[in-house]
Amino acid sequence: MLHVVCLDSKNVITNHRPIFVGTLNASLIHPREVFRFAIDNSAASIILVHNHPSGDPKPSREDIDITKRLIEAGSLLDILVLDHVIIGNDSYRSLKDMDVLG
Predict the structure, then answer these.
(1) 20, 31, 39, 66: which is deepest, by most CB within 10 A?
(2) Contact (Cβ atoms closer than 8 angstroms) between residue 45 and residue 7
(3) pTM
(4) What is the DSSP string of the chain?
């Protein structure tokens, strides 16, 4: 499940909600749905959060690719993607901390 967390210009959370529910090993994420929610909530930036049912929070190639795509889309809309956090069994990985966001 992918959650989008909306933040204002002071990085205060203004709203959040699940946007996509995936299958056991896949999730179809479209920038349109992510940013529709962000725009509706006047977000200055967003944080993406999703879980890996396997329990391993290591980002997949697809996780990295969609994050980069969302960063590009957000750039066009002037909405920053601050991080993408993947949750696993009692642990998490931050793509920002891993220097994946660029």
Answers:
(1) 66
(2) yes
(3) 0.90
(4) -EEEEEE-TTS-EEEEEEEE---SS-----HHHHHHHHHHTT-SEEEEEEE-TTS--PPPHHHHHHHHHHHHHHHHHT-EEEEEEEEETTEEEETTTTT---
Amino acid at 10: K
What are the pLDDT digits (tens) for 37-93? Answer: 999 999 999 999 999 988 999 999 999 999 999 999 999 999 999 999 999 999 999
- Chain centroid offset of residue 8 CA: 16
- pLDDT tier for residue 34 given thresholds of 50, 70 and 90: very high
Domain covering 2-94 in this structure, CATH number: 3.40.140.10
The rounded distance, in Å, linking the Cα atoms of 33 and 36 is: 5
Instruction: Please give the structure tokens belonging to residue 22.
Output: 């995936």
